[in-house]
Fold this protein.
Amino acid sequence: MDPAPVAAVDATALETRHVSAHVGHRRGQGRKRKGHRQRLWPKLTVVLHTQSHFILAAVSGLGPSQDSPDFIPAMRQAAEHVPLHTVLGDAGYDAEHNYRLCREELGVARTLIRLSRRNTGRYWPKTPYRRAMRHRFPKSLYNQRWHVESGFSQHKRRLDPALTARKPASQTRELLLRVISHNLMLLAQEAP
């Protein structure tokens, strides 16, 4: 592991059927009809080491939902395994308590989360960590966040974007087993 690990946090949706959401939408299956519930889908939030694409933490859930509530359990889980130097996140994780958790409780030296316009608009944030992000935001370092998207793409290409389990508890187990499989595949790839 590198001396100053950089990790990116993000969430992705997985399919419950082998028909993609795009194809289903084109067939007219994805349209929300009046009086019908919106279809829930399995959601996977990960903390991914940007250098190796190794998944350091995984939290499963159901979407569509906000990303921010899954940040705390994912970061606590990752901090148990690796002392992180830098954490990168998109605007879905923009909340002062997320900065405070990383910096004050987990000892992360740098937390770069893109500010969400819905929380501030044109005004400067009032809280200290979010204000610091508005004042000086290192775009070149933040741009490494693409690694988590690449990790999701790799995960879905190798292990399929559709889950085989149907019930939420079984889907959670399958998601976590897929994360273990993803990491084992990376380790096997590195073996001589």
The mean pLDDT is 81. The domain at 6-15+39-190 is CATH 3.30.420.10 (Nucleotidyltransferase; domain 5). The two ends are 17 Å apart (CA to CA). Strands lie at 6-13, 41-49, 55-63, 86-89, 110-113.
